[in-house]
Amino acid sequence: MHIFQFLNSRRQARLLRPWATAVIGCLVFTKAPAQTNQAPTYLRDIQPIFMGNCSRCHNQQSRFVYDWLDYKTAYTDRWEIRRRIWDSWKGTYYKEAMPVANSPESLALSEEERATIVKWVDNGGLRGVPPPPGVAKSKTERIDMGKRLFTSVCAACHQPTGRGLPNVFPPLAGSDFLNADKNRAIQTVIFGRQGEVVVNGLKFNNSMPSFPLTDQDIANVLTFVYNSFGNSGLEVTPAEVKSLRSQPPVSAGSSAPSGPPAAKSTFE
């Protein structure tokens, strides 16, 4: 009986061997999906991540932390950035992780974005060139491009719903501050804003950094915001942004004194 079982098992092995060989051959010789070897660069890949997740602290107005929106500064600090956003997060570097756990930025920063930053550092911290700007030819295209920019840069603080965070970040949804003065809104995005503002009857005292965005970018994202969240439906053009960029920034609580006239808003 045992002899028959032994011979039968050998027969099964002989029958299975060609199939196993074929399967292994497929695994070895089948061409793998194309892998991109393109190394991340600062201007194309890293700066957008920093704008969306790190700029509340790491900006040009900060006094006690480094401005990561500046390439030279980020490059100099790149190994500490790597340790804080990856090794600390993985538990292998015992300093406070960046961003701070459970902060809006930490919740928004994905593992893929963290890995991209690590890869950028490991590949030499290349500066690269910015991606070619998308040129909107209509209001609809501007809204679509602005939505993508809002999601990657603005939503971490102002939230995907535009409602902000109580006592921390002011809402953009139905914002009387935003809708009352388009020129002021444009200059706020161009230059950033410090100090107290009153939005929809509530006081907010935080800082908004100046982002390294083009005139087209600012026009797109503001057109999206004005046409979302129950706002007034205004359109912002690159020409308006360019004109106001040459004007001195306004102080908190005041209106932009010059530039293209803003359309009358129903919120006024």
Structural summary, described in words:
The protein is mainly alpha-helical and about 270 residues long. The protein has two domains: about 40-120, no CATH class; about 140-245, Cytochrome Bc1 Complex, Chain D, domain 2 (Orthogonal Bundle). The protein is about 50% helix and about 5% strand. The protein contains eleven helices and two strands. A two-stranded antiparallel ribbon has the order 1-2. The longest helix has 28 residues, at about 1-30. Residues about 1-35 and about 255-268 have low confidence and may be disordered.
Poorly predicted residue ranges = 1-35, 256-268
| Total helical segments | 11
Q: Helicity, in percent?
A: 40-55%
Number of strands: 2
Q: Supply the number of structural domains.
A: 2
Into which percentage range does the β-strand content fall?
5-15%
Using only C-alpha atoms, the radius of gyration works out to 26 Å
CATH topology term of the largest domain = Cytochrome Bc1 Complex, Chain D, domain 2
What order do the SSEs take from the amino end to the carboxyl end, as H and E?
HHHHHHHHHEEHH
Overall residue-averaged pLDDT value: 81
Decide which structural class fits the backbone: mainly alpha
CATH architecture heading of the largest domain: Orthogonal Bundle
Can you tell me the CATH class of the largest domain? Mainly Alpha
How far apart the termini lie comes to 97 Å
CATH H-level superfamily title of the largest domain: Cytochrome c-like domain
Oligomeric state = single chain
Physical arrangement of strands within the biggest beta sheet: 1-2
Shape: globular
